[in-house]
Structure formats: structure tokens, C-alpha cells
Design a protein that fits this description.
homodimer, Rossmann fold, seven-stranded mixed β-sheet, three-stranded antiparallel β-sheet, 6 helices, globular
């Protein structure tokens, strides 16, 4: 391959790569915009954050809470979350959320981009766990991908549980649970379980605020 | 695959994905830090920016220049650069830098992450073009990857020209020119061509300020 051909391919690369080349900006800015919604949500008192991941949401919660207890199953993401969160009112717990039982009740139970990773058959139990974790008058607040986000995933078909394929830089592939809830169905399902719920949508995401059935509280 | 196995794979994904998951933050912040060096460089007067790409550097140059003329070969990156740059003192030109001849002289010729994409056999001509584009007393200012950056590229071996492979999300692959200049060799080479040059390194990158041979000016 001579230099002219290589330079032609180089030009072709930069033409084709333009949208991906700027992606760190775009992703950072889109996430910053979404993170800002925390300021408009009724985050209060002692907050339980489920599936905190790398702690992208944790500092924003800590700024508005008396305390934050942030739980995740993955050691590696918790290491990053701890590095990102310097507040002394934040405590991290490593635990499988499908096994873990909250040791106390909280004023707010918050989970961002976790509901879509809960298998549908486990949703009733999950909502019961959230309900049991809420103090009287407490609220569940949740943010996740709406149906439009499916366009950005490799959705797997013919699976017993809705799933998607994720790829890492080293070429390794993982199947994950991924349910793209739509706001109306989720509202109906939660209402049927006795919850009082309001869900708004924002740029392909939904943001829910829900109070559990009082009999379960 | 039952839900337990799927959930185990999901946990494995998030453990393995932790560093990549936060990459938009890391890349954004590293680039913001590097972009800030513009404030410490002798950007002045009428500036020519070679290979402006998606215009990441252009607004910072415009803030310190009387005018910026930003040139790139790729239509698609120029569209993004125009969207990013609102200053009325910036003009964009679409041209192949290996063909284009500057129509006038400039006080500063700036190029970030372009030198590494120039084939070594074309470097003497490239530096002559830069020299011819500089007004008396003008300076070339350039930023690029040092040798440490090779660790982040798929370097192609046994090529007549130093090259790397770049992959896009759709699986397509492109060979590009990629020369990881080290500061000392580059200083020696430019000095041999009659330039006066100072190169500093900063977190894997180098930042050069160079004045052309007066006989060429």
C-alpha cells in the first residue's frame, strides 16, 4: 500500500468516523443534562441508591440527602464510585440486589438504569423489596431507558428474558437483561400493584416518582 | 439460559466493563485538560489551523486570535466543527492538506494531532509548507501523541509507512498513518531543517513551538 492509497484511506476514516470521534463529548454532555434532573426530584432524608454502578448519580444524591447508602454487586464499579464520591455521608455496600435485604428503611429509594436490568418475572418481588425499604411517606425515584433506547443496543431475540448483547473493547461479549419499559405500561403495572406513580419522559428516558401501597408500608 | 445464569453474566459484564463504562467522562476530562494548554501558548494574530477535525481546538484558538482559518479534508468533520464554532472570526476551508497551498501568510500555524498523520517521507515538504505559511516572526504550534500513545492504538507492523488500524462501531476498519514522534528526535529533525524549536511533554502528549529558518521566511 503506497502513501497515496494510505492517505486516501485515512481521509475516508475521518469522514466515516466523524460522529464517533466526538462521542465522548456527546455522551458526557447528554449524561450531564440527565444528571441535572436530580435537582428537580424529591430526593430527601436518608437515601438508598440501588445499583449505584460507577457512582455517576451518587454525588448529586449526596448533595441533597442527609445520607446515601449506595449498593452494587460489582467490586470494580464500586471502586470507581468510591473514587468519585468524597462525601462523608455516603456509604457503599457490595451486595447482589436479588439477595440483599435492606437493614432499615429510607426516605428515598433511588435507582437509575437499574429497572431495565431486572428480569420481568422478578419485578413484583423487586417492587416489594423497594416498598419494604421505604419509611412512611417515602418515595421511590427511578430513571431508565425508554423504548427508543433499543436502537442503541444489540437486542437479542428469542430469549426467555428480554436481553441484549454488550461488547467490550477486548472483543468479549456478555448477555445482560434489558427491558425497555414504556411509561404507560409501567404506570399501569405499578398501579395494579397498589402504587401511586407519576412517570415523565425526557429525551428517550423516563423518570418515575412512586409511593408504595400503604398496606405494604 | 435461565434468569440466574443471565443475571450472573450481567454481573460479570458490569465487573469487566467498569473502566470502559466511565470512559466518556475520562476522555472528556483528559481532553478538556489538554485543550486548556491553548491559554499558555503564544497564539496570536491571524491563525491558520491545519486539520481542524471536528473543531475541538478551534473555539479556544478563536478566543485568542484576530482570525482563524481552519482547514480539513473531511466534509463530515467540518460540519461538526462549524456547529461547535460560533465565532464570526472563524472561516472553514475544505481541502486536502497535501495539495492545498495557503493563499496568504499567518501569525500562527496551529495543528493538533495532525503531525502524527503525515507520512515521514512527506515531512520535509510539510514543514516547508508551514514555513511558507508563516508571516515574519510567526510561529508554528503543534500538539500530538508521544510514544506512550502507541499503547492505545492497533499499530500495524511491516508497513512501508508507520500506520495503525482504526475500527468504527459498524465493524469497518481503516488504516491510517500514525507516527509517534518523540520530542527529542523531532527537535533534532526540525533543528536540522533550520527551525528553532522548543518541545515540552505533558501527560503523554508533546507541545511544540517552532520558528522557521529565516531564509525560508
Amino acid at each position: 500500500m503506497d502513501d497515496d492509497a494510505l492517505l486516501a484511506e485515512q481521509r475516508a476514516y475521518y469522514r466515516a468516523a466523524a460522529p464517533e470521534y466526538d462521542r465522548p463529548y456527546a455522551e458526557y454532555e447528554a449524561l450531564q443534562q440527565l444528571l441535572a434532573v436530580v435537582d428537580d426530584l424529591p430526593i430527601a432524608g436518608d437515601v438508598l441508591e440501588l445499583a449505584c454502578g460507577t457512582g455517576q448519580w451518587t454525588p448529586g444524591l449526596a448533595a441533597r440527602a442527609r445520607s446515601v447508602t449506595a449498593v452494587d454487586a460489582a467490586t470494580e464499579v464500586l471502586t470507581l464510585a468510591r473514587a468519585r464520591t468524597t462525601s462523608s455521608t455516603v456509604q457503599f455496600i457490595e451486595a447482589d440486589l436479588f439477595q440483599w435485604q435492606p437493614p432499615r428503611r429510607y426516605d428515598t429509594v433511588f435507582f437509575a438504569f437499574w429497572l431495565s436490568h431486572v428480569p420481568p418475572t422478578r419485578l413484583p418481588d423487586f417492587w416489594n423489596t423497594v416498598s419494604a425499604a421505604l419509611a412512611p411517606g417515602g418515595k421511590a425515584i427511578f430513571i431508565d431507558d425508554g423504548p427508543a433506547a433499543a436502537a442503541y443496543e444489540e437486542v437479542l431475540t428469542n430469549q426467555p428474558t428480554p436481553a441484549a448483547l454488550r461488547r467490550l473493547d477486548d472483543g468479549s461479549q456478555y448477555r445482560i437483561v434489558k427491558v425497555f419499559h414504556d411509561a404507560q405500561t409501567l404506570t399501569d403495572d405499578l398501579t395494579a400493584l397498589g402504587w401511586t406513580v407519576q412517570i415523565q419522559t425526557k429525551a428517550g428516558n423516563f423518570i418515575g416518582i412512586a409511593e408504595p401501597p400503604t398496606t405494604a408500608g
